[in-house]
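In keeping with the milestone schedule agreed at the kick-off meeting, the structural modelling team has produced records for the first pair of proteins. Each record is given below as a sequence line and a structure-token line. The laboratory manager (R.T.) confirmed that both were archived under the project's standard naming scheme.
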Amino acid sequence: MILATTLLLAACGGGGIGPGPQESVVRAGPISHIPGDLSRQALDAVNSYRAQYSQPLLRTNGRLAAAAASHAADMAATDGLSHTGSDGGDVADRARAAGYDYCFIAENIAQGPQDIPEALAGWMASPGHRQNMLNPRAREMALAQRGAYWVMVLGERGC
């Protein structure tokens, strides 16, 4: 498994970007099936991790789901694993395009996990990905999968 770090952007009020970006990537073998209800399974698993670290529980958000799904589809169409979309946009651009007005946004991506537990275990084993999943600023999340590509977006609206 090859690891890098995760794109982490934070913005409050006027949409300025906070701490410098950290990119993170997880790669694994080919996927053989597509799991059922990604949102519920992922939410339960991530909230279980967050509870272990005394972090607030997350809820799903349809706009984050749209941002995650669009990026998963883009990576599958281009057969490339990157936080930068084929249009040059990043997670902040995708969140805004989906109508998500954020003050915190983070993204984890992976290629190849066979199921949700494998994707989440890979992210939890990586310091940058784990930091995103356990970030106390995150209040909402979404997970999308297209083929071998997985995208998790975490965010906090407004501020």
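The second protein of the pair:
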Amino acid sequence: MDPFNAWLPRLDELVEEAALSVNINGINHAVMMVTPDDLDDFAIGFLFGDGIIASNQDVHDIQITPSEQGMVLDVTIANRCLAALSQRKRRLTGATGCGICGVEAIEHALPALTPLAPLAPPAAVSLANLRERIAPWQCKARQSGALHAALALDEQGEIVACREDIGRHNALDKLIGMQLRQPVRASTLVITSRCGSELIHKAVQFGAAHLISLASPSQLAVRLALKYNLNLIHVPRFDAPVYYSHGRPSDQIGEPNVQSY
């Protein structure tokens, strides 16, 4: 160890961050700052959220190669998807802070989506101790902190999957990419980060019925969730859940301690 730096904390206890160049059929599409794991899931989720692929079947090959500056993600997609790629002239750089940085037109930032079929929000009892149940799944966050997580819940409210990343959008892309590769997809997604409009779009495009956030949503996020029939639930640290939904959970109808909009 360098004696002049002996006082510094160990770097291997900090979160890893790397530049990821995403190439699609040999053409550079984006440069992202990511936590370099589950990148195959990220590739599928990112391209799906960007409207370039419609399903996991549209991805023919994924190659991940280390480079001097970071990592290169080479994705080969179906020829029919290349037309969508040419229509989306999008270039992203360092998008850990904003999910729509570099979008050329406002209609690309806030695209029109197909409303979901209205469903009753999850029962409040299924959200009990959710924060405590999430903690064991955040393996990297327990070691280094500074990581967002996105999780999937089954019909009973039990956690079945988790993905982590230094970028909150990346974490959700990783989870959605993983879910797109499963025979049965979860209808309830959870995010530990603040809930902005772009995460609502990702959840609606994926087809989730419910999105649970541990942080309060923005006004636009709530308006979009209501517009597209996505049940948005904020689970505060101490107070009762807040349901931004056209309906109320069946086990809490008439209960004053659960807020609903």
